[in-house]
Amino acid sequence: MGYMLLMKDSIYKILFYVIVILIFYYLYRTIRRATSLPDDVGLEHFDDKLDYSIEYVMNEYNKKNDDIYDKEYVDLYDIAYHDFHDIDRDMKVVIKHCPTLKSESQSSILIGGCGVGKLCHKWKEHNPKSVVYGVDFSKHMLKKAEGLYPNIKYIRGNLADPKLFDSSPIYDLYMIDERTLYMNHEQDMERILQNANRWLKDEGILVVPVYDKNELQLASRYYSTTYIDHLGLVHGFTYLDHFSHDCWYVPDVGDGVDVDGDGKKDIKGDDEKSERLTLYFDKFTTKDGKKRIKTTMFYFLPKDEVYQMILRNGFEKIHIEPICTQIVGGYELAIFKKKKNVLSVKEIQKRQTQNQNQNQKVESKK
Description:
By secondary structure, the protein is α/β, with parallel strands linked by helices. The chain has three domains: about 1-35; about 60-215 and about 300-340, Vaccinia Virus protein VP39 (Rossmann fold); about 225-300, no CATH class. About 35% of the residues lie in helices and about 25% in strands. The protein has nine helices and twelve strands. The chain has helices spanning about 1-35, 60-65, 70-80, 85-95, 120-125, 140-150, 185-200, 305-310, 345-365, and strands at about 110, 130-135, 155, 170-175, 200-210, 225-230, 235-240, 245-250, 275-285, 290-300, 315-325, 330-340. A seven-stranded mixed sheet has the order 3-2-1-4-5-12-11, with helices on both faces. The protein has a five-stranded antiparallel sheet with strand order 6-7-8-9-10, with helices on one face. Strand 2 (about 130-135), helix 6 and strand 3 (about 155) form a beta-alpha-beta unit. The protein starts with a helix and ends with a helix.
């Protein structure tokens, strides 16, 4: 009898250890899949060109190129930035201060600069009844997003284009993702915010990350670390399966920048607007030493100018949340509400006259 109990106890212990091993193996395979290169990515396009003039940037760059991101970069981007921690935190802040966006409401949501669709997916997950639209300029980003999160409506277009949507207000929430606003010069930033007012319903919610050029940060993800290079710039470095990812900002490019430390200015600052430009580098290195460097350019206006721009385009502040530990942190999460469109007496009388004239024209045709 005692022998049977001992055998039974041993079998339970063995089963317990087997289950534990299987759980750890499953977690290992899950992390490995999430951080592995897709089969068709081999880093064929190596370093992006660095020896260019600053005036060949932003809108000029977009006009001359069909897509600022190729398929290879998008695949790498999806792996390196596959982290929902920042999105979850931002959404909690927005939901806390905007009770109209509760999970059971039938909201219409627009995400500007949606990339591979992470933020769209999270809002749809929070509110399955909502209709979520994602807009991005990059066809490769949108193709990736469609494959990852097919229950979102994706649109390729320019957020500064007033004809992107019908002029009638249709959205309850418009959230501009990460640094999307700053991938435009000042004039297009203004147009983007004008369109936000045009597309949002009265008292609709606008959410904008407002960055401070002097407080840009890189937070850890996966098993990341940080280091400081020869220019005194802080890097975020991450080891992933089959490759590593290094990212860093290069601010103040007005006088030119020596990126690789060889004494030559790889990036030339040769126009007035370059003083407000900040470059962001993604460097991917495979185990066999192949490298890919992607440069993204941002036009960081002072925070006060951005806030004034938002306010003068018909919005009022709800809440500003300082956030300092995001993946691409150093921004304040700014939540605004579109002001109600209140017509003056003169505007009402003018519209009444226009309607009367239109009715008279219709009657005369009869």
